[in-house]
Amino acid sequence: MTDWTAIVGSVTTLLGGLGGYWLAGRNDDNRDQQAAAREEAARRESFAERLEEDRHTFQRDTLLELQDELQRLVRNTAQISL
User: Considering the entire predicted model, what is its pTM?
Assistant: First the structure.
């Protein structure tokens, strides 16, 4: 009877160790996938912010150019009128 319990004890220990190793591997994979998802979300957010900033800069530059052209037109019109 002692041999039977020794075999069961060692098999149980072996299976417990392998099960723990397998679960640790799954947890590591899940953690890596979550980290990759967070990095991807951060990259997308950064890209969206950069596009928003570029759009804002383009609009500002366009409006400043329009203002300069309008001022030049008013000056020319005033010179013609005088």
Answer: 0.56
Q: How many CA atoms lie within 13 A of 37 on its CB side?
A: 6
- The C-alpha atoms of residue 8 and residue 16 are separated, in whole angstroms, by 12
Place of tokens 């149980």: 12
Q: Helix %, strand %, coil % for the chain, to 5?
A: 100, 0, 0
Q: Is it the case that residue 48 has pLDDT exceeding 80?
A: yes
CA dihedral 44, 47, 53, 59 (to 10 degrees): -100
In angstroms, rounded to a whole number, what is the distance separating the alpha carbons of residues 79 and 77?
A: 5
